[in-house]
Structures are given as C-alpha cells and as structure tokens.
Design a protein that fits this description.
This protein is mainly beta. The chain has a single domain (about 5-100), classed as OB fold (Dihydrolipoamide Acetyltransferase, E2P) (Beta Barrel). The protein has strands at about 5-10, 15-20, 35-40, 40-50, 60-65, 75-80, 90-95, 95-100. A hairpin with a 5-residue loop joins strand 5 (about 60-65) and strand 6. It is globular, with a radius of gyration of 15 Å. The chain binds zinc ion (ZN).
C-alpha cells in the first residue's frame, strides 16, 4: 500500500487551504484553486463509535474528526480501534472517504 500524500486545495484568491471540493472557496468564493500536497499527519479532535450507523455502513462505525495542516478539519473513518483525543494519526484518502491509521511505529501486519 503506497503512502499517498494528503491533497488539499489552495485558493488562488485568498490563499486559504481547504479540502478539495467542487464548490468555490469557502472564504472568498473564488473558483480557482491549486492542489497542494499536505502532511498526512493530523491531531484527533473528537472520536465516536456508532453502534447503529446509517444503511450501507458496517457497525461499529468509527468516526474521527481530525485537524491537519493549516487547521483544516476533516471527518474520517477509523478501521481499527478508536483513537484518543489529542492522538496523532495518519490520514489517507480512500475513494470518497478519509481513513485514519495510528502512527504507532510497531510494525503490525494486517
Ligand atoms: Zn479564497
């Protein structure tokens, strides 16, 4: 599995960094943005586990709010255990969703 960088958008109008979206810049509404490679490391702001998630998601569904570079926040899924608030995690884009993985250096297989 490759270590893909986290890609964010940099607004060419005001310089704001935000999650890539089809919508214009959330601050100045400019439609020109440049993809920027950001660090995939982020800090957990909140984490919760849903025992009965919406249809189409497997239980337990672990949701993690992560803050990455420039205070950009994103909602990600944890496939393993739920991380602690304040923990540093690695964020990876997986199709339409973001996933977090512990940055624990122990080389676990799986
Ligand atoms: Zn802008």
């Amino acid at each position: 599995m490759s270590a893909d960088p986290l890609v964010l958008s940099r607004c060419e109008g005001c310089g704001l960094l935000y999650l890539p979206t089809a919508a214009p810049c959330p601050r100045c509404a400019t439609h020109r943005e440049t993809p920027v490679e950001a660090s995939p490391l982020g800090t957990v702001l909140a984490a919760t586990e849903l025992a009965s998630p919406s249809e189409g998601w497997t239980a337990p569904h672990r949701l993690v709010l992560v803050e990455v570079q420039d205070a950009v926040r994103l909602l990600a899924m944890a496939s393993e255990s739920l991380p602690e608030v304040g923990e540093t995690v690695r964020v990876r884009r997986d199709g339409e969703v973001y996933r977090v993985m512990p940055t624990d250096p122990v080389g676990r297989q799986g």
